[in-house]
Each structure stands twice: as C-alpha cells, then as structure tokens.
Amino acid sequence: MRLLVLTQDFPPAIGGIETYSWELARRWADAVEELVVVCPRQRGSAAVDRAAPFPVIRTRVPCDLLALGARAAIMPIVRRRRIDAVFLAQWQPGPSLLGPRRAGRIPRLFVAAHGRELLFAPFAGAPRLQAACDRLRRDVLAGADALFPVSRYTAGLIRRIGVDHPRVVVVGNGTDPARFTPGEGAAFRARHGLGDRPLILTLGRLVARKGIDDVIRSLPALRARHPDALYAVAGGGPDRARLEGLVAELGLGDAVRFLGRLEADELVPALRACDVFVTASRDDEPDVEGFGIVFLEAGACGRPVVGTFAGGIPDAIVDGETGLLVPQADPTALAGALGRLLDDPALRRRLGAAGRRRVVEVANWDTAARRILAAMREVAAGA
Ligand code: GDD
Questions:
Q1: pTM above 0.70, yes or no
Q2: Ligand 1 pocket mutation pick from 293, 301, 328, 364 by most atoms within 8 angstroms of CB
Q3: Per residue, what are the HEC states of 301-354?
Q4: pLDDT in tens, 67-96
Q5: What spacing in Å lies between the alpha carbon of 59 and ligand 1's midpoint?
Q6: From the alpha carbon of 175, which atom of ligand 1 is closest?
Q7: Whose CB has fewer CB within 10 Å in the chain, the N or C terminal residue?
C-alpha cells in the first residue's frame, strides 16, 4: 500500500488527534511500501519533521483553509508518489477530495472520527450555510471506503448525524507501553514543590469540557477526609484564568497547583508522581470527549484513573477494573471516588496494575495501527 495521511493536527501542536496521527503514521511507515504525511505548516515544526521516520510535507494552506485547499495540496503528491490510499485523520479536509475519489484518481479514501468534529457547527448563526456544511460532512463520511471511529460513542455520533455507512470499524485509541511505564515520581514532585501530599493529577488541554472545574468543586468535600490532598493541573489552554478564579473564589489556593503545559519528556514523570489521575469531562456539545488517550497514558504508568460517563470515556476506562467512572458534572460523586482511592492503597495498586496490563495487551498503538491497516488492506483488496 502507498499511503498518504492528511491531517490538520500534527505535532508539535498538542492534543489527541496530534498524538493519534503521529503514532499511527510512524507505525505504518514500517509496514507499507510508501508513507507520507501532509499537514499544515506551524511554528517549531522543523525539528519534528527532521525526527520523523517518514516524509512530512507541510502545506502552505493554513489549517482552517485545508478544507478548501486539500485537493491542490495533495494531488501533485498523490501523482508523484503513486499514492493508492489517502487516510484523513479527520473529515474536514475531505470535501475537495471527493471528486478525485469518484474519478479514481484517489483509489481509496479512509476517514477517522474522534468526536467534536462530527458535531461542531461553525456557521450556527447562518442556517443555510450550516446546512451546506452538514451536507458536506455527511458526503465525506458517506463517500469514504471505510470509517474509523475511536470509540463506540463516536460510532454512534456518525449514525446520529445521519450517516449509515456499511464499513464502520471502531478502533480504540492506544498508547505506548514502552514509553509510558511505572516508576518513581519523587523527582517531579521535588521539581514542582509538590511535597509528599496525596496528589491528584489532571493532564489535558484547559478547555471547559474537561471538567477541571468539577474536580475543583469536589475538593472541599474531599479535603474534609484528606486535608492534605493536593490537586495538580497539567496542561495549557484558554480556560486557565476562569479556573484560577474559581480556585480563589472557593478559597482553595493551597489545594490546587497549575503546572502549565508540560514538555513531552515531563509527561511520564508527572503521571508517575500522582496517586490518582482524574479527568472529569462533560458532554458539552459540540465539545465532547471521543475517547481520552490520557487515561491510557496514566494507566500505562500504573496509575488508577477516575473518569466520567461522558462521551467515549467508558471505552478508555473499564469501570471497577482499570479505574472508576462517575456521573458527569457531579462534584459529590467525584469526591467520593477520589476519596475512596486515596483511602485504599491496595485498590489503587490493583486498578493501576490492571490499567497497565490492558495497555500492554490491547489498548496500545501497535494494535490500533495494525487493525486499521488490516481493514484498509481488506478494502484495497476488494473484500
Ligand atoms: N507534551 C504535552 N504537554 N502533551 C500534552 C499536554 C501537555 O501539557 N496536555 C495534553 N497532552 C497530550 C496527552 O499526553 C495526550 O497524548 C493528548 O495530548 C491529549 O489527548 P486526549 O486525552 O485524547 O484529549 P484531546 O481532547 O486532546 O483529544 C481528542 O481526540 C482524541 C483522539 O481521538 C478527544 O476527542 C479525545 O477524547 C480523543 O481521545
């Protein structure tokens, strides 16, 4: 197979689709005849592209315009490299590719689906324009040879927006059990002045749907039982000022620490440093959690995780086995689950060990890359 991966989201930017695109591409590069990634130019990308074990072609077209410019950006590459399959990491660059797909100039077209991009409505104030956008989204999804949603929930979103595709293959996200491993967290704690207090950690982009405010609201009840408990929030994003305001309003200044965006080599030390990992996402449509790679990353580091019954999180956490799930937007339930884990070191160890085992056995990028590639090959072979 000669594969072109087209993605709006690619490192050095940070986020789940960036991780997804990078991790799959670098595995496919070893498994196919030809692999090239096409993505928008961004600051700081030269170092990433040099380190990539495959060619990365940065388009001049900015990310938001890739929807219009994808055809011009990739067709010369498709011809030159005799590409026989295009994999879109998200549907948005797809509309201008449907023509070449129908004409056979792109022999196969595959589309991944995450969550938010299936619901977002950029032209909500202009109903006719939005209806046209919805139609394009459905056309791209329906026109693909196969769709790869990252969770059962995301597969449900595809049906909900009116796409009934015969080849929908749910392939859950993964993580890398060789990179994310259990170990000592003392050095990270020391570097960030976290002491040896019971530590709860969230890692993620600071956006409202991640429910960091719900964890903050759970702290007064949690601290009634665990007065020393400390909540560390790692990650950067637009919601930080609001969250800091909430911490001040609730008088929780000594209970919450914002660590900011972490360098890539700080992720594992941060996860190892915590006693419990939590992300309390909410369905804040169109902003939804398609899966939650961070739960696997924490689990791979042997940490117990707490999440919510929101979006695709129930595919990322096996409730009662690798972590605990609580209702969304429920600080009381969060305080209960976090308190239960802080009370019980044996339960923490059991959930953490099971989380790691699940990543090693199934929830890893090797498995995800293999499964998607097998499905693409089946299609290419005309099965
Ligand atoms: N270096 C660094 N620094 N990486 C970070 C930071 C940071 O401060 N914050 C988050 N990340 C990385 C995490 O390690 C993880 O690999 C990724 O960014 C976040 O992925 P998700 O937890 O999956 O969340 P998302 O909202 O950005 O991703 C969306 O797409 C994913 C892929 O399908 C959501 O829909 C997710 O639910 C979905 O899993």
A1: yes
A2: 293
A3: CCCCEEEECCCCHHHHCCECCCEEEECCCCHHHHHHHHHHHHHCHHHHHHHHHH
A4: 778 999 999 999 999 999 999 999 999 999
A5: 23
A6: 16
A7: C
Residue 369 sits in the same domain as residue 352: no
Find the 8 Cα to ligand 1 centroid distance in Å.
15
Asked if the structure places residue 180 within a domain, the reply is no
Mean pLDDT of 20-42: 97
Residue 153: give the domain boundaries: 2-174+364-380
Is 264 near ligand 1, meaning CB less than 6 Å away?
Answer: yes
- Average pLDDT on 198-211 reads 97
Ligand 1 midpoint to CA 251 (Å): 29
Number of domains in the chain: 2
Ligand 1 atom closest to residue 234's alpha carbon, by position in its atom list: 8
Cα dihedral: 371, 372, 378, 379 (round 10): 160
Statement to judge: residues 234 and 152 lie in one domain? no
